[in-house]
Amino acid sequence: MEVNHFIVFSAALVRYQIAGNFLGLPAVTVPVGYDKEGLPIGLQFIGKPWSEPTLMHIAFAMQALCISHYRKPKVFYNLLHKN
Asked: Which residue ranges run through the membrane (predicted)?
């Protein structure tokens, strides 16, 4: 039963990505804030073919408007820092 719930949950997470991936459309996802529990919220933009530069400008502007500061998760492992 657990596997079945995992498949349904996974399908719900990617349902809006399938069309863009299938058609080969460029897409970008940017962080736009945090929910009540502190988890990040993202927004995805999908463009027409060869519109990557426009998508990058839109993503940069939206991210700058929505997030004034970033938060680290409570549990954070810096893989680049050697102990």
From this structure: none
- Contact between 29 and 46 (Cβ < 8 Å): no
Q: Give the CA count within 13 Å in the CB-facing half-sphere of 66.
A: 16
For tokens 């990505």, the residue is 17
16: helix, coil or strand?
A: coil
Task: Round to whole Å and give the CA distance between 63 and 45.
Answer: 12
Rounded to whole angstroms, the Cα distance separating 45 from 81 reads: 33
Residue found by looking up tokens 């998760």 in the block: 73
Average pLDDT over the chain, rounded to an integer: 80
d(CA 28, CA 11): 19
Q: How far apart are CA 79 and CA 83, in angstroms?
A: 10
Of 29, 56, 34, 55, nearest to 44 by C-alpha is 29
